[in-house]
Task: structure prediction
Amino acid sequence: MQAGNGTVGVEVRHEPEQSRYALYEDGELIGVADYLRRGDTLIFTHTGIAPDRRGGGLGSTLVDAAMADVREQGGLSVRPACSFVREWFQAHPEQAELLG
Result:
């Protein structure tokens, strides 16, 4: 899935075999949003961006794409155990129906 926000060369991939959403820039892994799946709930446990790439909104780009994918899959809910994902939901109250 292509990332939005005008981030050219940035792509978010769902990698269910590794229980994560991964952010790539020009093919290089620069961020992850790890989760545990419990039934129909994805428990997001950690979000991280490469230290030299932090501060440019890439974490939000990653979580935006992950939540869009969760919504598209349908029937799933999210539990934000990770502080970054919790803060993302606070900044996006319109997405609260994803919370389970």
About this structure: The first strand starts at residue 10 and ends at 15. The chain has one domain: 10-98.
